[in-house]
Every structure is written in C-alpha cells, then in structure tokens.
Amino acid sequence: MPMRETFLTTTERIVDADPDVALVLADISAAQFADVARRHPDRVINVGIREQLLVSAGAGLALAGLRPIVHTFPPFLVERAFEQIKLDFSHQDVGGVLVSWGASYDMSTAGRTHQSPGDVALIDSLPGWTVHVPGHPEEARRLLLESIPGDGRVYLRLSAQENASPHLGVGFTRVRFGSSGVVVAVGPVLDRVLRATAGLDVTVLYASTIRPFDGAGLRSAVLSAAPSVVLVEPYLAGTSASWVAEALSDVPHRLRSLGVRRDAEVRMYGGIADHDLAHGLDAGSLGLSIREFLGE
Amino acid sequence: MTTMTAPGYADLPRLISLMTGDEKHHAAAESTLDVLWVLYDRVLDVTPESFREPGRDRFLLSKGHGPMAYYAVLTAKGFIAEAELPTWSDPVSRLGYHPDRRRVPGVEISSGSLGHGLPIAFGTALGLRARGLTRAKVVTLVGDAELDEGSNHEAIVVAAREGLENLTTVVVDNQSSTHGWPDGIARRFAVEGWETRTVSGRDHDALYDAFTTAHPGRPLAVVAVVEPKE
Fold it and tell me: Which superfamily does B31-64+106-225 belong to?
C-alpha cells in the first residue's frame, strides 16, 4: 500500500481509537475520509478550500485540549499558511501533527503550484519542530503513530516516492560502512543513493527523521571515515547543511549538498523520474556527483 | 489612590494611565474598554483561579494592538498585579505592545498579527464541543479594520455551517477599515447564518444583553459601535 493510502487507513484507526485526536482537512483527502467523518463528525472537520483556517483551526483545537492532525498538499499546508504555522502553533506554543502528501514534485504533471521543495526549509526556520521524511509506507505508519502521544509539533512529509524496504530506527542509521566519505540519505532517496554508491568505499547514513538533526550520529560516522560529507535530501538542496556544519564545527570537513535545485525554477511536466533527472536526483546523476566530489 | 475594595470600572482609566502616562480622560477613550469590561465583569465565567480549567469561558483578543485596556481589565479582575502595569513594555516586563499568552496569566492567545483570533477561536469552539464542554463560551474580539484580513471570512463561513453556538465574535467598530463595509458589518455575518446584534460599544446594558441573549444553534456576532477613530 502506498504512503498516502497508509496514512489514510492509519489516521482512520487513530481517530476511531483516540477520542482526543481531531482531524482537520481542506477538501484534500476529504472523500477518502468520508466514512470516519460520518462516525466522528465533531472530530473530523473539513473546512473546504481554506488553508489559513485549516491550520488555525488545528491550533484552536489544540488550545481546547485535543491533538490535531492537519492535512493537505504541502504547498498549501506549509507555504500558503506559513504564518498560521509560525504564530498559531509555534508562537502560541501548542502542539499538532501536520501531515502533507505530495513532496517536492510527486504531482509531476501539475506544475509549480503543486510542488513544495521548500517546505522543510520553512519549517526549519521555526524552533523545536520534529520533521519526519519517511522513505517507506511502514516508516510513515510508525512515525504517524509515534507522533500522536504528547504535545510536540510534528511535520510528517509523505511522498509517492519510496524505498524497497523500511529502515526503522532513531536518528542516523549506518546502512553501509566505508572509509572514503559519508553519504547522508534522507527518506525516499536511500535506494538511489545505494545504487549510486555501489562499488564506492563510503559510509551511507539513513534517516527518516531529519529534525531533530542527529549531529552526534553524523559526527561519529565522519570521525571513522574521510571527512567528506555528501548530503542527499529530497527537498531543497542544502536544507540541512547548517546542521551538518554545526555538528562538525570542530572537524575540518568538506560538504556537498544535493537536492532539489535552488538556482532555477524547473518548468516542466512529465513523470517524477523526469523531475529526478532535472534535479540530478536520479541514481546516475547522484553517482556522478558523488564520485566527482570524492575524486573517484 | 488606593482602594480596599476590588477595582471597578471607574479605576480603569487610572490603571491605563499607569502604562501610558496619558491623562485619564484619554485612556477612557480606548475603543475596546467598555466591551472588555462588560465581558470580564458580567459575561465570562473565568477568574484567576479558574483560568486553567478545561471548562472555563475563553476570551481571545484578536486585535492585539493597543492592549492597555485589556491589561487594565485583567488587572481589575486580579489576573495581573497593579504594580506590574508601570513596567509596561520594559525589557523585563511581561506586558508588551502585543499580549503574550505564555507570559501573562489569563491571556488565551498571543496576538498582534491581525486575522488570527477568530480562526483560532473557531477551532477552540469546535474542540470544546468535541470534548462535551458545551457550556464553555469562546468569545473573540476583532476590529472593523481587522476584518480586512481574509482569514476572518474563512472562519465566518465555516463557523456558521458548523452551527457553533458556543462561539461569539465581537467586532469593535470604530470605522477604521480603509475600504469600509457597505451595508454594515453585521451583514457579513448574517448572510452566512450568524445571529447578529449591533449595539453601542459604550452602552454596558446593551452590550450585556447582546452577549447573553440566547442564540440557539448558531454563532453570535456582536457589532459594538464606538466613536470613529481620529
């Protein structure tokens, strides 16, 4: 079952089981949630195409003591309603679980309006958020379930792209050991990174939770290899670069950040694979970039 | 002047002038003063002892600028110590030009950016209903110029469709909206299904009646008209 459907079924079970959870929608996925909305009309609210209200209502529900799950596509959730996230969740200091599906260019034929490579960078401008970028539906399911208890602020970024198998763990896990550098793969790019680094003597780290940033895990890996770091993120290139620099502030190192390009807006339709190519995020392009950086 | 009894309405200009240093008659001209007083004195069931109770009434000041009248009323009702008022806007003060809910007891939301209070109040009213706390009122105060923000209109529509009887919006109308509201502010609410009442924002009994007369099955909008902003 793909990540989006996993989210739909898991959320439905959460709302059925936990009377303290509310689900707020802005038409997106409302049809799929119609049954659970009929069962719990007070806790499943579709505000229509109103993203400011979507986010503010989630915060208001939190102020009344509920745990809100707030969901739509990422440009409308994070970019359009960013001030509501900043003020109504962060500044009010209330918790919630924001869940987007669509990532940087999952809706590859929809054009720029439905693409959101900057969402993690925007959330990253606010302190204290947990950011999950699952690379497999089973990771998404686990991370969603783990996000419900407590009152933290969580951004769960779901995607149509996924790896062949889940990697469940906290912080960075070492998927491959090597000595000539450290390649960091976040979420759905892992399988491509593994293909791109086949035959290279590098450590590959993986994380589906990128905030908080596991600086200690990165540092430990870098200290046992050549201090050349390649950061591969499925959103805006270099989004985690400042965290890498912070973790390695006393370790002389080199860093190459790969991700969705910042230098130009890519105006194209086509498939997700076409966008991967355009941003250098396919296995072949990643292999070339990594080898060039490592001097191999 | 020191009084042994609890401060009342007559003390508000003095409390405001502790912050502003202005003359008392100027402080009395605060557009929100009478609405805030009637709410905290006669309408809202919330005290310094109960303001953390889940079933308390909630007041969300959306128009966060010019909060002196708000601080004065909270002081009169015992949420803030009078001695704290002269620290207003000092580096060490909890009382800023925009209220901070994390710092001031009894303040339900931190406001300042316009157009956030009503949408948040919508969510809180939904949440209280979902939790079965149906007797708790949620009252939010907005300005007529603040209604320019489109986020309010997102909430006005859906609050009415949800039949949020526990939600009240009071619009303090000092005719300061740049482009105005032809045919009146109440119409914007009424057309969506709100109960609307337009009263003098200086008439305490009229405000009390507007806030407390039943409006079953629908949210309530009170338009409190005050003198035009100079």
Answer: Thiamin diphosphate (ThDP)-binding fold, Pyr/PP domains (3.40.50.970)
CATH code of the domain covering residue A145: 3.40.50.970
Residue B126 touches partner A, C-beta closer than 8 Å: yes
Tens place of pLDDT per residue across chain B (230 aa): 454 678 999 999 999 999 988 776 676 678 999 999 999 999 999 999 999 999 999 999 999 998 999 999 999 999 999 999 999 999 999 999 999 999 999 999 999 999 999 999 999 999 999 999 999 999 999 999 999 999 999 999 999 999 999 999 999 999 999 999 999 999 999 999 999 999 999 999 999 999 999 999 999 999 999 999 87
Q: CB–CB of B130 and A53 under 8 A?
A: no
Structural domain boundaries enclosing A37:
3-158
Q: Are residues A140 and A179 in the same domain?
A: no
Is residue A265 classed exposed, middle or buried when 0-12, 13-18 and 19+ CB atoms within 10 A define those classes? exposed
List chain B residues with CB under 8 Å of A42. 126, 129-130
From CA B98, how far away is CA B140, in angstroms rounded? Answer: 15
The ipTM value here is: 0.96
Rounded Cα distance between A138 and B51, Å, is: 42
SS3 labels along A196-240: HCCCCCCEEEEECEEECCCHHHHHHHHHCCCCEEEEEEEEECCCC
In terms of domains, do A240 and A208 share one?
yes
Q: Which of B151, B165, B166 to mutate to test the interface with A (most CBs of A within 10 A)?
A: B151
- What does the alpha-carbon distance between residue B95 and residue B105 come to, in Å, rounded to a whole number? 11
* Closest-CA distance of chain A to residue B6, Å: 30
A127, A158, A189 - which closes a domain: A158
CB contact under 8 A, B109 and A63: yes
Give pTM, 2 decimals.
0.97
Instruction: Please answer yes or no on whether A87 and B122 come within 8 Å at the CB atom.
Output: no
The verdict on A13 and A117 lying in the same domain is yes
User: Cα(B178)–Cα(B148) distance, rounded to whole angstroms?
Assistant: 8
At A175, is the secondary structure helix, strand, or coil? strand
Most A CBs within 10 Å, among B59, B100, B108, B154, to test the A interface: B154
CB contact under 8 A, B126 and A64: yes
Same domain, A247 and A134: no
Q: In this complex, is the C-beta atom of B68 within 8 Å of any C-beta atom belonging to chain A?
A: no
**A167: in domain:** no
Find the CATH number of the domain harbouring A242: 3.40.50.920
